[in-house]
Records
---
Amino acid sequence: MPLKSIILIGAGNVAHHLGPQFQKSGLEILQVFSRKITKARRLAKTLKSEAINDLSKLSSSADLYVLAVHDGAIPLVAQQLPKEVREKKLVVHTSGATPSTVFKSICKRYGIFYPLQTFSIKRKVDFSSIPICTHANRKSDRQALQVLGQQLSNSSFEINDAQRAILHVAAVFVNNFSNHLFSIGAELCEKEQIPFQLLLPLILETATKVQKHPPAKMQTGPALRGDLTTLNKHLDYLQRYPEYEKLYRQLSKNINPKLPL
Amino acid sequence: MPLKSIILIGAGNVAHHLGPQFQKSGLEILQVFSRKITKARRLAKTLKSEAINDLSKLSSSADLYVLAVHDGAIPLVAQQLPKEVREKKLVVHTSGATPSTVFKSICKRYGIFYPLQTFSIKRKVDFSSIPICTHANRKSDRQALQVLGQQLSNSSFEINDAQRAILHVAAVFVNNFSNHLFSIGAELCEKEQIPFQLLLPLILETATKVQKHPPAKMQTGPALRGDLTTLNKHLDYLQRYPEYEKLYRQLSKNINPKLPL
């Protein structure tokens, strides 16, 4: 049975991006819950939905309950869902870091609807290219979530808890950590009055290259070449930033374990 | 005086990208040198130029001599340039890692023409968006190289040796090191039979975000949030990859120095 109506629990970044996509795909958003009624109202308005800030007012008539709240709040909110919802309705969260089994002793039908992307309220993203990772404890719900994922995106994957946990580790490396490296680049430039914009095309090309080629095959640079002259120059310069020097040394050794660093 | 004719010394990646751009901008490529005549011929053919593999056959009549060779070869090649070239002509290299002063005791007029991008022979790049960093020991040559840079690209910068050295360190962080993080992501996925393509939109979005926003302000993730539950889960999982565990710990601490890791 296709999922036709949704209640959004949470009105943050993820809910702000998911809500309009659900609506575009023809689903009805019955209610939007947030502890802060102004936040609930802001999102509910764009979705032509009802805003609530009291979980006891939650309707039991939706097909799907989407918890787009922070990881720590998932079990607390789930426990406060009306009994009828917990016993009869499909309840999912949108987190990459929390297993679906967080719901195990709370809800009968539970799962995951995890859009693998980094969201900012301000930036629009092309949702059709965002991979959706779904999972559910029941087979019929797994199928329904896959159908829903395919309505929102060109790539929807059934990913179990163990795989998703690892996917999340990998996402931290490619997103959070690479963004941190971009920050280091920006900081080094700024300290020396070099415009960071000089590095922006390089950043974009590095990310674009790996869209079609395995990153391991795209590796370049002094560490890979074993170019000790350059490496030592860089390490000398980085002495004024001990943390970055340590990082430079370690990343270079990871890239080329033969380096005598 | 604008530079009108060029001799390309080297027929690798950088020469293959620069050559056609020089030509598009109306410059004549008089000769292409490579130790391997087949390589010289391949590039010379597309540039309708002469291929040579003997530096003694180098013409002295070009306005600019571009050494697009690897860092270690720059002084060796420079020393073998004909005396007339070394005494009268402008000689530049295309490296981000080598100071212009590598030419100091060899050539009278020397400088840098460094396109700040990562090149693969196979991939075409939009040259107009590539920053060109130029420098020269003489003021008139600095101006001529800036004019040439502006003919090839929308962003051409006069960058001195000290600044360029730091820019190169920053480039290693944002390009070589972030590509390595992408490799780690790919490896973790592969080991667990998760399609790496799931992470590709995230990689592209991370790089796209920083085109308009400072990366430090775009930082997200468990380290920044101080989410120890997630961090410890990730570190537990990474115990099977001691190098990646170490890297995860260090990058997380860099992002959030207050973390008790």
---
Amino acid sequence: MIGRLHHVVIVGGGFGGLCACRSLKKAPVRITLIDRRNHHLFQPLLYQVATGGLSPANIAAPLRSLVGSQANTSVRLAEVVGFDLDAQRVFLRRGSPITYDTLIVASGSDQSYFGHSQWAEVAPGLKSIEDATRIRRRVLLAFEMAEQATDPQTIRRLTTFVVVGAGPTGVELAGALAEISRRTLAGQFHNIDPAKARVLLVEGSDRVLPTFTEPLTEKAQRSLERLGVEVLTGWMVRLLEPGRVEIVQQGDADEETRQVITAENIFWAAGVAASPLGGDLAKGSNCGIDRGGRVVVGPDCSLRGRPNVFAIGDLANWGHDLDRPLPGLAPVAMQQGRYVAKVIRRRFQGKSTPEFRYFDRGNMATIGRRMAVGELGRFRFWGFPAWLAWLFVHLMYLAEFENRVLVLVQWGWNYFTRNRSARLITAEPADYSTESEGPDWDALEAKWKR
Amino acid sequence: MIGRLHHVVIVGGGFGGLCACRSLKKAPVRITLIDRRNHHLFQPLLYQVATGGLSPANIAAPLRSLVGSQANTSVRLAEVVGFDLDAQRVFLRRGSPITYDTLIVASGSDQSYFGHSQWAEVAPGLKSIEDATRIRRRVLLAFEMAEQATDPQTIRRLTTFVVVGAGPTGVELAGALAEISRRTLAGQFHNIDPAKARVLLVEGSDRVLPTFTEPLTEKAQRSLERLGVEVLTGWMVRLLEPGRVEIVQQGDADEETRQVITAENIFWAAGVAASPLGGDLAKGSNCGIDRGGRVVVGPDCSLRGRPNVFAIGDLANWGHDLDRPLPGLAPVAMQQGRYVAKVIRRRFQGKSTPEFRYFDRGNMATIGRRMAVGELGRFRFWGFPAWLAWLFVHLMYLAEFENRVLVLVQWGWNYFTRNRSARLITAEPADYSTESEGPDWDALEAKWKR
């Protein structure tokens, strides 16, 4: 009998897909939730993993433990490569296509290098657990290498960190890097002073956190500078090479203001683009896609002429103003996920559903220990109260109760001791000489010596 | 002035090296602690990481946070490749040699495949964090692949796990694998029943936990069998190939009892050998090495004719009976580390030190939730009280206070919910198609299809 049930296929176990799946728990459907990873990831806290404050398992939960025991849901670890909307089929990288009655695509967004895909190697972004542990390893190794270096220029290069992009992720990462060097590692090295590390935050627009109102971005910038971050607003990245960033001032066509920064570690937080599945959806329907690769969806999040196909979250451009899509935030994806589930449930009752409305829960970013900024409509808050609010909101959002407890204990500890205990250098196997022998220092040195 | 201080070089930041370093905190020496990893690892709990119960950071602590702020100590991330004992120098894989006045070598042990080094690829062991996350990934992926497989033989192969060696690590790993399949994953799959997974424990000698007394090993075996582990004692591994183990009964020269087990995942817990640095030490001195590669040291843990060179822990064979070295346990290494520090401190006071004496703190192994066995002299304990004792002892040993709290919270949660939240599949970059795209399922499938 179960084979005859209406089949809902959900692509992506992020905030949107997970909320849709959970909201369909009691609906008369069978659900297949497909994700290429076996875990839901709480991306807003990924920078904490990258900087050794939290462990990966603190911010990720296995999809099977979240919805695997939901009776109408089966979880499938697979990569979706495309769709045939006419035949109602989803194509996987391996295995047979899956046929759906209703399709919800919530495949999110990837890092975008604005056409410079070769920059990805030079300046890793922060979208997955592996990204975070790689950044953690690179930052910690840089200090270890600097401790053993003798040439002042090498030490300077190794202890200079550049973060490109001053949105919430870039601001959080830069703030955390400054805190690591000035506080966590202080006094633990003998040949270098980690507090002398430079952290530069490069932003193309004229202020940090450009989606926030001006008074808050000023406060954020002052907080960053107090932490020791050098904020360079109005500077565009012109060239990225291993160990080297070239920036020019915004609007300077002749590049007379060119600056070159020598830095072993460059991190990218400057932009995202919708997952390539957006393009595939648009090709198979009459939908457009916007400049960010987002699928333009109708008022009920479905594709034009395809009422049984929905796109939600970072993948979708919902609304009437194409140039101003809803922000790529977890609450948007979650609300759309729940909304689409409601539309599907009500269809079984023969009812229509009013169009989706976004309930703005506000916007927050943290800068460091005890400092955050937030706004909710006209209400603005900052400093320690905002940090507490930020903490509270993020803990509430964390998917599993257990994670909340553990993250709270970990944060409490970090807060009082200024410690970051997850400062583990776990090397990529490619950097290993043999499986059990630890990092291949020759190979690593070769990289440093570029 | 600091350059003139007596220089103690400690090789290895495991239990022995760390205890020696800490015990020299107030000695009139300067210390260089060298390790190829940046963290101290609490190896006895590594199997908990391998089976998703704990995060790597729960059982590992950065060496710099442990001793980096100790005024007389400098931590160096480097790999030691050999010694010149006459010139009193330590050679590193990269960088200049380091000159010592006193040398403490505590480089521990590696996995040993008894001359079959090609088995290392087929049957990974459990010595490092990377080993543990690799085993975790392989176990979880096997269930995911089985969920998608249709051929019963493939499903059977994917859900058969073989653990070779029934010492404490093998017993703990087999018990945890049985618990994962029978409890943690129960009800989270739709096409397979994880509880039908087979877990086989193969041991060459005639009983599990051969270092324990017989009544306890019987109890341990019954507990394992109750959990669903198939215990095969008196069977030797004859051949290991990808997906395939051949075993013969002990003493069966004609191999008439040959059995072939088809299993995707085979894990090795059958033996360790001292770090190769032992051989280098022996070459440079008049010391012998035993069959396990351990350096034979004198009553004060120093090398014969080299009173300023000590070998401790898993690397050393101390005592008069060469064939019965002290067990390779953390308490031995810790006591020797503290003892050697005392010898060094007392030399500055012109005092000699009585020979090292091992204070036997007993022996424990856990089998699963609520079950452990232990013995201390003639006193034996088992079941839930032994499990509580095991829990208490291990928490006390964990290096940092913070880790204790977090591990306790995590364990409490796991105990009450039978959950294992760290069940993350984080792939090796080699298994990735591109940096941001997640595992390369084609490559993984190719591996499965061998």
